[in-house]
């Protein structure tokens, strides 16, 4: 699958981020804990430069807990401030606020020395589409001020939102990059829903996902769909899942679109299990 997606608003977003960077004290970079490598936008380093940063591995509840530990060790070795979160349930919020205050302590003390009291710490939130930025803002603010949805691209404009802990957040639209040099990165982003399904061949996408899960999480597939993998091909496994779920059209043939939608949806929701597609030791688990 050739995935090359860079809508016009992505270019405008990058330019806006560069303009707004001078107004913030710290940057939150949100990654998806299931694909920390693929969800890390390579152009963000160029945008934020030396600005203090906290890397948040969101949706950690959907990832494999053992692999979360491996990623934590990986980031700690690089001296990267990292927090694992489930922003939907608010897990990790207190730790995030505490670390944010610690990393901006010097700047807050300078404000106080100048007689400026209770000045909010301004935070810019960056991340690819569908990684959970708006959900994080809602958890921090305790309200439903930021629009959220299960499709990428919900956030269309910059907005400042006051939250607890003396923080003021700048929400930004999700930004991808002009071209996916690595096909595996594009696939991983498509698996978690960061690329709109409407522009993809979801049948081929689901078949790729099944092939990967057969190698890395075969037991999860077998238990979820009550099937046996054995020496079956990915297509045979897809057809068996379709048969089990009643995904058939007139004449008894498998409805591949329907079964593909089921597999992708259940992977994204974590229904198939806690799955991590990448490991730090090899960069990308997919062979």
Shape, principal axes of CA atoms: elongated
- Taking Cα atoms only, what radius of gyration do you get, to the nearest Å? 20 Å
List the helices and strands in order: HEHEHEHHEHEEHHHHH
> Per DSSP, what share of the residues sits in E-state strands of 2 or more residues?
5-15%
Helix/strand/pairing category? alpha/beta
Question: Could you state the CATH homologous superfamily of the largest domain?
Answer: P-loop containing nucleotide triphosphate hydrolases
Mean pLDDT comes to: 84
The CATH class designation of the largest domain is: Alpha Beta
CATH architectural type of the largest domain: 3-Layer(aba) Sandwich
Total separate domains? 2
Can you give a write-up of this model?
The protein is an alpha/beta fold. The chain folds into 2 domains: 8-171, P-loop containing nucleotide triphosphate hydrolases (Rossmann fold), CATH 3.40.50; 201-269, Conserved Hypothetical Protein Ylqf, Chain: A, domain 2 (Orthogonal Bundle). 41% of the residues lie in helices and 11% in strands. It is built from 11 helices and 6 strands. The chain has helices spanning 8-20, 44-48, 65-77, 93-103, 105-113, 133-141, 183-192, 202-216, 218-225, 234-244, 256-269, and strands at residues 26-32, 53-58, 82-84, 121-127, 159-163, 167-171. A 6-stranded mixed β-sheet has the order 3-2-1-4-6-5, sandwiched between helices. Residues 146-156 and 283-287 have low confidence and may be disordered. One of its GO terms (cellular component) is cytoplasm.
Which helices and strands appear, and what pairs or packs with what?
Layout: H1 8-20, E1 26-32, H2 44-48, E2 53-58, H3 65-77, E3 82-84, H4 93-103, H5 105-113, E4 121-127, H6 133-141, E5 159-163, E6 167-171, H7 183-192, H8 202-216, H9 218-225, H10 234-244, H11 256-269
Helix pairs in contact: 8-9, 8-10, 8-11, 10-11
